[in-house]
Design a protein that fits this description.
The complex is a heterodimer of chains A (297) and B (344).
Chain A: H1 2-30, H2 38-56, H3 59-83, H4 88-111, E1 116-118, E2 127-128, H5 139-143, E3 146-147, H6 148-166, H7 168-178, H8 180-185, H9 190-216, E4 219-221, H10 228-238, H11 243-263, H12 269-296
Antiparallel strand pairs in A: 1-4, 2-3
Helix pairs in contact in A: 1-6, 1-7, 1-9, 1-10, 1-11, 2-3, 2-4, 2-9, 2-10, 3-4, 3-9, 6-7, 6-9, 7-9, 10-11, 10-12, 11-12
Chain B: H1 2-25, H2 30-42, H3 47-53, H4 55-70, H5 77-94, H6 99-128, H7 132-152, E1 176-177, E2 180-181, H8 183-200, H9 202-212, H10 214-219, H11 224-249, H12 262-272, H13 277-301, H14 307-343
Antiparallel strand pairs in B: 1-2
Classes of the chains: A mainly alpha (297), B mainly alpha (344).
């Protein structure tokens, strides 16, 4: 029983940052932006989250700083891709590398360290115990006692889903991606919608980043997003942006990650660490094969 | 032509100006910092070293440039570089021939390693239509862990306290004359070959055509899927070559983290060079000037060299955005001038 709850908890933990970033990517996907900057936004969120928590000795400030840090990256993306109409792909790659550079530089400049920074002064985001439920055996261990961000991610899935499909903003968001000229001619600026989708993406990636540096572990290390932004991009593409689908795919990736840890007893850790990336390839493979079949019919 | 040069120079200067502002805010002296930076990398005795350091940057830059210009979004240079480096290392550990045979053999092995890794992505696209954009990124991470495993277990140097392989056979070391490493010669040769293929051969013409408009080139009778695979293999081989040369010119063994940031820098170089082969060479050298100089900058002025990483990304963003902006600006000026001429 312990193994199974451990596996499920591991799955939830590794799924959370991917889910949050992918939800952000979903919003920009619907707005018709080829946004590959989630990786950079997440990394920036992780750094600034750690910074906020360290200076104010408080995790809410950490989360706030994480969100602001990620929004800063989103604003740079907006400046180049929306205002200056630069190629979104180049902006995204440039921004991701900018984020790596800025966080490494600031780590060196502020904390005088290379590689990683950990300190007891960094206050982690707490785990939430839900009364009553926590006493139920097995189920209680899973539903209760998760990190606050895990519950926020769950909530975010529902909110994003509602936002995209049930609100006026969502309708305009989808219109901006589907046919921006008709949205513009109907009197709503498609660019404004795109800007908002990017800022919201920043908020979600910031939360994902705060989970990396204040939830999962309590430290910041260079490049700690480790390709999670790319995996979340793959998740968005696989389900064409659908938030519920993203949640399921993220859990699947989380599961493979947990499985990788589990396999460490029999395989070198280098191979088990590959598992989520191999799983992404397999998922893309299944997706392509299904797409091919559909096209044949 | 003049205008293009102007746009690039102005963009770089703007980025350097922004960097100077950042330094000013933090209380450093930007003029002295830049002087130390360029002095360290461009002084007469240093320029050969800077050139040698530009080899992996230019090679991965050309890999990305050729790929982007021909259509495939090959972002797998980091993984291909590592695989190339690993292949060259393995060759150097088990084979020992006279240098005249050994060096070319290891270079070919390195190219094979890179091409193998990009070939995986190419086949996934060819057979299953999986976008190389994501697959190459995932393969990067896999190559990272795979090479890390390789230097931890099968090719691990006993008694080393850091994951690394033993030294490769000395016959496989790139000859060095004081600061000038002969890997530069390989780079120049590769540059010549690539320039010729892209600008003077039918294949290169077809690639560029497919990069501009894949449908048009296919309707015109170009075998786009064959070209796709060839371009992927070639660009993988270039990145692999970069990896092999990093080993053969540098520490002569595979150490953890040997790939560094070369490949991503190469991707940035391709972008800032607008996938032009000659500009890739120029910016590759320029990035090397910044990176080499950053050492001197840190030594003398206490500005952390990580600043250069930021500066590089800023240069890319500003030059690329500026290029688009200036082009519309010049087009407007031109149009206005013509209008005036006609009305006069």
């Amino acid at each position: 029983m312990n193994i199974i709850t451990g596996l499920i908890n591991g799955m939830i933990t590794s799924a959370t940052p991917i889910l949050l970033a992918a939800l952000g990517g979903s919003l920009t996907y619907y707005a018709g932006i080829f946004n590959i900057a989630m990786e950079g936004m997440m990394l920036s969120g992780a750094f600034f989250g750690m910074l906020g928590s360290y200076y104010f000795h408080s995790w809410p400030m950490g989360i706030l700083f994480a969100i602001l840090g990620a929004i800063l990256m989103a604003l740079i993306f907006i400046l180049f891709a929306v205002v200056l109409k630069m190629d979104e792909f180049i902006t995204g790659i440039g921004l991701n590398l900018f984020s790596v550079g800025v966080t490494t530089y600031m780590l060196r400049q502020i904390f005088k360290v290379k590689g990683a920074f950990a300190s007891p002064e960094i206050v982690p985001i707490p785990k939430i115990d839900i009364p009553w439920i926590k006493d139920i055996p097995v189920v209680g261990e899973i539903i209760s006692g998760q990190n606050l961000i895990v519950y926020i991610a769950l909530l975010a899935t529902i909110v994003v889903s509602y936002l995209v499909f049930k609100t006026r903003f969502g309708l305009r968001l989808r219109a901006a991606g589907y046919n921006r000229t008709s949205l513009d001619t109907s009197g709503v600026s498609a660019n404004r919608i795109r800007v908002w989708s990017l800022i919201l993406c920043g908020v979600l990636c910031g939360l994902a980043g705060s989970f990396l540096s204040l939830g999962y572990v309590t430290l910041f290390s260079e490049g700690m997003s480790a390709g999670r932004g790319w995996i979340s991009l793959a998740a968005v593409i696989l389900v064409s942006g659908n938030p519920t689908g993203i949640a399921l795919i993220s859990l699947l990736f989380g599961f493979t990650d947990g499985l990788g840890l589990f396999m460490q007893r029999s395989l070198p850790s280098q191979f088990t660490s590959m598992v989520p990336y191999v799983a992404t390839l397999v998922a893309l493979f299944v997706y392509s094969v299904r797409l091919k079949k559909k096209q044949k019919i | 032509m003049k205008r293009k040069v102007l746009v690039n120079v102005v963009g770089v200067l703007l980025a350097l100006l922004l960097g100077a502002l950042v330094m000013l805010v933090q209380g450093y002296n930007p003029l002295e910092t830049y002087y130390r930076l360029f002095e360290y990398s461009l002084a007469p005795g240093k320029i050969a070293y800077t050139l040698s350091k530009s080899v992996p940057l230019v090679l991965t830059g050309m890999s990305a440039s050729v790929a982007f210009a021909s259509g495939p979004i090959n972002l797998g240079q980091p993984g291909q570089l590592l695989m190339g480096a690993l292949f060259a290392t393995i060759g150097g550990l088990y084979i020992n021939l006279p240098p005249l045979l050994m060096v070319p053999l290891l270079l070919i092995l390195a190219m094979l390693g890179g091409a193998l890794w990009s070939g995986v992505a190419a086949l996934l696209k060819y057979w299953f239509n999986m976008s190389e954009f994501i697959t190459t990124l995932m393969l990067n991470m896999i190559a990272d862990f795979f090479t890390y495993w390789a230097i931890n277990y099968p090719f691990f140097e006993k008694n080393a306290n850091h994951p690394q392989t033993p030294l490769i056979a000395q016959s496989g070391w790139m000859p060095e004359w004081s600061n000038f490493n002969s890997s530069v010669i390989v780079m120049v040769l590769a540059f010549g070959v690539i320039w010729f293929i892209v600008n003077r051969s039918t294949a290169g013409y077809e690639w560029r055509l497919s990069g501009q408009n894949s449908l048009f080139s296919r309707l015109g009778g170009v075998n786009t899927s064959k070209n796709y695979i060839v371009v992927m293999l070639l660009t993988g081989a270039l990145a692999g070559l970069a990896g092999g040369l990093v080993i053969m010119a540098g520490p002569h063994r595979f150490i953890k983290g040997i790939g560094g940031n070369y490949a991503w820098d190469g991707v940035m170089i391709a972008m800032v060079a607008n996938t032009g082969i000659i500009l890739t060479l120029v910016f590759g050298f320029f990035f090397s000037v910044l990176q080499t100089g950053s050492l001197g900058m840190e030594l003398i002025t206490a500005v952390p060299r990580e600043l250069i990483q930021v500066l590089q990304a800023v240069i890319v963003l500003i030059v690329v955005a500026g290029r688009g902006y200036f082009e519309t600006f010049f087009a407007k000026v031109e149009a206005r001038r013509k209008m005036r001429e006609r009305t006069a």
